[in-house]
Amino acid sequence: MKKISLVLVCFFIIVSSLKADNVRSVKDFNFDWKFNLGDTPKAKSTDFNDQDWRELKLPHDWSIEQSYTTENTAGSTGFLPTGIGWYRKTFSIDASQQNKLFHIEFDGIFSNAEVWINGHYLGKRPYGYSAFTYELTKYLNFGGENVIAVKADNANYANSRWYTGSGIYRNVRLVSTSKIYVPQFGAWVETPQVSQKQAKVKVSSIVKNTFGKAQKLKLKVAIKDKSGKLIASGSKKLTVAAVDTSSISLTIANPELWNLEQTNQYTAEVQVFAGKELKDKYDVDFGIRSVRFDANKGFFLNEKNIKLKGVCLHHDAGAVGGIFIRDVWKRRLENLKDIGVNAIRMSHNPADPGLLKLCDEMGFVVINEALDEWRRNKNKWITSRFAKDMRPELITGYGDIYEEWAERDVKDMVRNSRNHPSIIMWSMGNEIEWTYSYYYKMEKSNQGLGNQVLMEETGDGKDELKETAEEIEKWIKEIDPNRLVTTGGVLPRAGNITGYFDVPDVMGYNYRADDYDTDHKNYPNRIIYGSENWGTYQEWKDAVDREFISGIFIWTGIAYLGESGPYPWKGLDISLLDFCGYYTPRGHFFKTLWSDKPYTYLATKHAKKAQWIQKGDKWIDNRVTGWLDKWLFEDVEQTWNYETGDSVFVEVYSNAPQVELFINQKSYGVKNPDDFEDHIVKYLVPYAEGEIKAVGLNESKKESEYQIKTAKWVSKLVLKADRTDMKANGYDVVHVQAYIQTKSGELVPDKEMQIEFDVEGEGVNIGVDNGWDRNVQKHKSNYIVTHKGRAMLLVQSTRKAGAIKISARAGEMKSNQIEIKTEL
């Protein structure tokens, strides 16, 4: 009896191990890489000695680690060096794994990535925002060492209009499967019919068979909710010779819909069987929701009409550059959410998968964008943002590779991210009209002359731009026929003449609110929204006052590197959040427009420096307004530090019906935000040391308030962390904010002091910053000079459990010590 039992146990162990051996394994491949900045062609060889190379963890952006400089850099990309870098990783695979297939998956390398495994060339991927994969199997040394080498060539330092980052700046995975498997991007979920009572769910999968002869297989799909409960299932028999695509349709009763408040998601478990043997298991997270745009009523999510309170976002994140770090972006998105943002336009490239996953989890709707350039390149500039100093030899961009790579890059964007419920539209591109000079000529002409210009420029009236848009839209819909396609257009009158503005399902208008009414009247079936907008009250009001405008997307949500100059102006802070993720005055203002919570904020400026002057009861904008000024916001500050006798300009933002301003409890009057054209209440008051306070009033009752106290004398340096514990996983990050304060704890906003941070234990300093768009101190440093009385340190955990002790000093002044626990 014991012998029989032992045999049975052994049998089940063997069967279990065989099944486990054939099921997909996804290994985090980010750790234990070596890196060298500089072109090292011999590094592709297995016998190359990389002993002296730097050891690091991916994702990695070598540009952000360097010093800002004007030598071989460009204002268009933020005055940070680029170059060529090489990565190498040595790894082993057990000899028992020879019956499996191995693929390496890259989420993005900037740029012109070339990959070798054990000296064998695998290929090149020029576009830095594309995810891609290579099979490694036939080149691997099972039971021995393997070397993968990656070259990233970002030597052309002016190849973009914004900061790109350099290197393997997105995640890498090593995936092993059986010889029958689902490839990368190979399973997807569609929800063609959605209601509160019932949802039709269609799960599709590509199955590859590499045995060389047809196999009889079974495809099984199980839908599970967030608790793991089985909701629906189905199966289908297949005969696969090499590649087959099959779908299974299921019905879910009373689905939990994904929306902005409740981000319900399901998991589709896709399983492939040969007989009773499980060959592969591929999980897809998805959400059930309906999306609809109406030419007269705007945007609907689950048939609920919603105004898009959107922002445009570039992919860089201040001190950490182009790499995606979940905790860094979660904090940033939390602050945007607090302001009231509900929509994000990824500008102007496909987003990192991790950022899209955060949007799924946190409740943002997303426009994922493919390209900033099509067949023709846009100008890039060296020392300033005005593109007058462009060097001809540096005019490069996506146009150089469009013919060879565009179809693959666009389709892979859709394949890679189509399962994200947050994505509501695919954007083909942004302001492509600027690359066709005749568009600008047509924009300035009337209808008849515009057609004449088109004929003169093209000879036959055929517009390459329109034809390219039709081509890209076709590619997108081949992969995802369900979502709508859009683009950000900037010359609507010209686009109406050529028909370009009729190509997308939904047409985005960049800074062209003046054309909303005319185009809605002349093109009543066109769906219109503000795809890129100045961050002003008028831009929002133009959307609110028009039911047919779905919403706006402010340029930008968060300050970004690039499109800058002259040095040391490294980037654009025309945003709701600065480089550190701190609220800007504009961010506080839009919180009063977009948040339902009562909110009041005030900021000040010496009257002599203010753009606004008071004449009687009227306020007049005293700027000599140019095109750039439309993006700028009055640079008021959170300070009440002036001299006796100074006249101070005060701005109050509030969503209360009225506001009242007090200085040391003395009232300076009640005013109504609606009485000001820009919805910003303004005061001109005499300075008096003490406290200034704004109160939001609703029927004479206090609804909200904000105050600032005089704070001129620095007494202490205070550190505050946004968490007290982290996982010892090499990924988690704590944001440590340093404040210069008075004895009573008030921020001293107009003192600049150099802070030195000290980090001990199981944590790594990954960057310092102060949020200023003219801060060109090196981010990979222990030192930082404060701006507006504050600075920030980012510390990432190691993979060892323990504690991290963080402190700082400024001269002889020492801070409190923060301790962060890390656990496995």
UniProtKB/TrEMBL annotation:
Signal sequence residues: 1-20
Hydrolase is among the record's keywords: yes
Domain DUF4982: 646-701
Domain Glycoside hydrolase family 2 immunoglobulin-like beta-sandwich intervals: 191-289
Xref: Pfam families: DUF4982, Glyco_hydro2_C5, Glyco_hydro_2, Glyco_hydro_2_C, Glyco_hydro_2_N
Domain Glycoside hydrolase family residue range list: 717-819
Gene3D superfamilies xref list: Galactose-binding domain-like, Glycosidases, Immunoglobulins
Protein name, UniProt field: DUF4982 domain-containing protein
